Amino acid sequence: MIHLILTMHGLTTMHCNIKTEIRIANEAGYQALEIIADKLLRYLDTGFTAEELLPVFKSYGIIPVCINALKDIESLDRKEHNKLLWECERLCIAAEILGCHVIQLVAFDGLFGRPWKEIRELTAKNIAKLADIAGEHKVKLQLEPIAFSPMNSLSKSLEVIEAADRENVGMVIDFWHLWAGGDTAASEVTKLDRSIIYGVHFCDGIKPKDGRWDEAVLRGYLVGEGDINVEEWVAAVKATGFDGVWSAELYSPKHWEWDLMEIAVESKKRMMEYLSII
Questions:
Q1: CA–CA distance, 177 with 58 (Å, rounded to integer)
Q2: Computed over its alpha carbons, how large is the radius of gyration of the chain?
Q3: CA proximity to 65, closest of 253, 244, 255, 213
């Protein structure tokens, strides 16, 4: 039997601090929380500690399953790269304390214009460094393809993971990014070894009609209201036998102005409907 971990994505409740988010996740009926890195770092920067969050997670029965995300991982700028390594160490320490076993990686367009082979090798080299840091803290790294980046497909993501050559690096299946990137069919997901899938971002949206990648516009849709054949993507993931985190993600400034509890509940309701849980 496939076990699903119903997870609230911290982007869905963007305008919220982490302690309130844990409570909302509980009251909306989720099992877990995908933590937004900026919210966690903001909490820590005010003088609180990761240890102080442990009783909060425990009291509400919520599992911290992922920290999202280390960004611009492809950067070659020495100052930015050193900052990335420092942030990775900081988040890994917090993740180990919290028992959160996955941190997400995101590469944008810092290497745009270079040959794909060079992009692959440079990105993989950086990932390997991050993975070595994460491994010291018993943390895994999930790579997310980004629709408007050079690494915009499932196949390219797998190439980068292979080139990084680290056992603690896998990927997240993000419906919108893979679909909008234009080079991945849902059927490709069915061929994956489920062990390489660390999580699923359950989301919807549209593609740009004018060439502008404005996520606030393109992703501002509740699941079932965008253009993605969500049933097809859900079936593809299920076909792998994936047993883990399904994270309800809504990147939508319009919906962020809802009551946060309402959007958390509605996002979970739609995810459960598509997963045939009700």
A1: 33
A2: 18
A3: 244
How many whole angstroms separate alpha carbon 111 and alpha carbon 123? 9
Q: Residue 106: beta bridge partners?
A: 71, 144
Domains identified in the chain and CATH numbers: 5-274 (3.20.20.150)
> Is the confidence at residue 99, as pLDDT, over 60?
yes
Q: How far apart are the C-alpha atoms of 107 and 177, rounded to whole Å? A: 12
CA 126 to chain centre: 19
Judge if the upstream peptide bond of residue 69 is cis by omega within 30 degrees of 0.
yes
The mean pLDDT value for 57-61 works out to 98
**Token match 């320490």: residue?**
93
Place of tokens 């056992």: 167
Predicted local distance difference test score (pLDDT) of residue 1: 46
Q: Which of 232, 231, 225 is nearest to 204 (CA)?
A: 225
**CB-count exposure of residue 96 (10 Å: 0-12, 13-18, 19+):** middle
Give the integer Cα–Cα distance in Å for 217 and 215.
5
Can you list the pairs that 74-79 forms with residues at least 24 positions away whose Cβ atoms lie under 8 Å?
74/107, 74/108, 74/110, 74/111, 74/119, 74/122, 74/123, 74/126, 75/110, 75/126, 76/110, 76/111, 76/122
Centroid of chain to Cα 57: 20
Q: Which residues, at least 6 apart from 254, have a Cβ–Cβ distance to it below 8 Å?
A: 220
